[in-house]
Amino acid sequence: MASDQLAGLISGLIQNRRILQLHTPASAPDAVKRLVPLQVAGQEAVCGGFQYRLQCLSNDDQLPLKKLQGLPLAFAIGDDSGEARPVCGIVSRAECVLSDGALTVYELVLRDALSLLAQRSTWRVFRDASVLDISNQILSEHIQQNQVLGAAFQFSLSGASKSYPPRSFTLQAGESDADFLTRLWRQEGIAWHFDHKLDDGRPLHRLCLIDSTEAYPDNPAGTVRFHRADATEQRDTVVAWQAWREQAPGEARRSSFDYKSVNTTEAQAPDMLEQGDAGSRLSETLTDYQYDAARFGAGSGHYEQQARSRMLAHEYLSKGFSGESVVRQFRSGTVFNLSQHAEIDSHPESERAFILTRLELYARNGMRLDAKLARSLFRGWPQAMRGADGHQSNEAPVYYNQFDCVRRSIPVVPHYDPASVPQVGMLSAIVVGAEGSEIDVDEMGRIAVRFLFARPEEHAKGAGASGTPRDSARIRVLQPWADAGFGTAFWPRVGSEILVGFIQGHPDKPIALGGLYDGTHDTPRFNGFGSLPANAALYGMRTKELKAQRHNQLRFDDTNAQISTQILSEHAATQLNQGWLGTPRSEGKSSPRGEGFELATDAAGALRAAKGMLVTAFERLNANGKQLDRSETLSMMEECLGLFKALGKYSAEHQGQAADNEPQAKLHTDLQQWEQGSNTEPGGAGGRQPVIALTAPAGLVFNTPKAAVTHAGENIDQVALKNMQLASGERTVVNAGKGISMFSQSEDFKLIAHQGKWLAQAQHNDVQVDAAKNIKLSASGGKVQVIASEEIMLVTSDGTFIKLGGGKITMGCNDAATIHAATHHWTSPATESAELPKFDKGDVGRVPQLINPLTKKGIPGMRYEITRSDGSILKGVTDAEGRAAKIDHDAFEGMKVRFFDAEN
């Protein structure tokens, strides 16, 4: 084509009113402003955005494509009212498809801003924000931070009038902003569309969120006739109309487990469609059931709303209308009325209004083109060879569209596919907590984390990338065992790295799976020694004291031939070591310390067993037998009890003191019946007495450098099958409250004071010394002195006697009395002094007293009952010092004292 012909063509397009016009912003280059639109094709949809392909002509083949890229542009289609409907977008693609030096053809792709946000993907956390809050934040950021979007794009949330509660945690999981936002809108049942305007010549398109049919504006075309498209028609018309239906499920059901109430929240929404007799019966078993992730909705009301939106989406997709028209004012997201259609006219007026949900259009300015140029320009444009009446043409202006619509009474609700939710997998995160805390959990043991993907610049308000509990909702921690007040409790420490999974893969439902070691969190150094891989045979758990450096640990050592376990607290070095005992293993090495078990502490220790305790060194290999297997102990006790009884009886029969066998016999019985009532003898009774038995086949050793005390409330019975031997470096003192009986059945009875005085007294009674044979008294280095306060009498079995006392000496016999002496002297009377010992009686009376063990003071006003050894009972009330009445007696006695509440 010659240059003058091209100039005339372009000039003609500019000077004549054509249906397709191009609008550019004031900042556009002049070469762009000189572009002349030839044809456009594309589509727009509610819940879908728009995309148009625009072909423009130019006589400038030097226009760089980058001058077009990202430029806000608008094309306007003149309508039957003389107005022009603009479609405003952003150039996302520019292509030079034809250039011969004289004519250059550019093709531009115009898209909405939301679809362009598909090119921006990120990982991002939103805290305590509703779907509208999140939408506002993301879209506002783009408008404020992006000059092109700020100049060409707006949004409105006013059409979303329902309640959308804040979400405690929402994660944009590597999705584009477009995919993320539309996923949230679909989930909540919010529709969206775009409207367009030229704002003082500036192309501007606006995203509108809508959740009510009343929010859709009326289309400027108003009421449109159903009529063929003739050149003689003054108004644009709908030229084709079809109704369609598609089978829908009978109900939508959803359920989600609420771990706080431990109930499954359920929501259901039956269909409200008239699907015909067969269709309704068919839908009865067709249920759209979705099991959502835990705590999916913000309460039952919100969850019901989501379920209803799901059913409304099915209803929206199950019934509609399609058509073709030449109505140039049509745009998606607007409402028109249809008239002069026989079937539609039969319905009430409210059912003749329709929401345009999708529009696919083609428009072309008319021009005379030679066949070769036409083929070049229309290649790849199948719509270009078709006129509204179906005849081929390239000279007249062309416009036609195809559309989908639903009655205005049908809610336009986008379909939500759970499969569109990204399956996140597992992510690393850092545990965060309140300032200064090492462990930060709530009442359910939930923690807060900062995900490593969180960038501060995308979390301007801090939540998500602050390193505080604001960075996430509280998330549960996976435990090996979790139950009602029992189970395991392992809480990750603040600052540690953990692995986070997501329930059902949903990005909004994180759960802590376990901890990970990293460059600043080393593997445990049990006992503070060694490292991996040398200590790889050590397994277990090691904790750390809060705000300090001490530890507790449970350690297993699987080293070949040196296996052991250890429970240790570094407080007072308290530990239980079992198995092969050795020094703490360092770099795989340990020095032996013994075998078996060791319970040790640098502080105090206590063993308590309410049903008794057996401490024995008798062997039971591999812990065979019962827990209280004590056959050897019982056998030895039977031997000792037998000897004890026999010697005690023999002593009693030979004027010795009879032994009290009952306490020892009862203890023996208790040991015999020890297991009765336990799981080894569940049917027995009287067992499980709180006794302690110590036994060893090779002997027992008790020693201390200080005092040793043995106390018994009843008897202390000591029996030796051979010798019982007592030795003391200084004194041996034996005191008895009643009596002492010592009996030797055979061999000698020896009482020897090697260097000190030997003293035998009966302070308030007689001394009797009997011998079956002789009695010998001797004083190797002194005198034998016999003193009596009244008389001394020596008598033999035949009656011969000598009696001294009363100032006289009397002798008698029944035979001769013989006295041998060298001489004899009978002088005047004389006596010697005789000093007798004096014996006092001490007070052995006792006063029972009730003492508070905490205050060490007496407890007044308590009733008491004292049972004495003779069976008599004394009763009374304690005085101000907690004392009972004094018990007077001239000898020690055992008493049983019981105290009672004054009111009982």
UniProtKB/TrEMBL annotation:
Q: In this protein, which residues make up the domain named DUF2345?
A: 687-830
Residues in domain Putative type VI secretion system Rhs element associated Vgr?
A: 544-650
Q: Where is the Gp5/Type VI secretion system Vgr protein OB-fold domain?
A: 474-517
Q: Which InterPro entries match?
A: Gp5/Vgr_OB, T6SS_Rhs_Vgr_dom, T6SS_RhsGE_Vgr_subset, T6SS_Vgr_RhsGE, Vgr_OB-fold_dom_sf, VgrG2_DUF2345
Family statement drawn from the similarity comment of this UniProt entry: Belongs to the VgrG protein family.
User: What protein name is recorded for this chain?
Assistant: Type VI secretion system tip protein VgrG
Q: Can you name the source organism?
A: Pseudoduganella guangdongensis
Gene that produces this protein: tssI
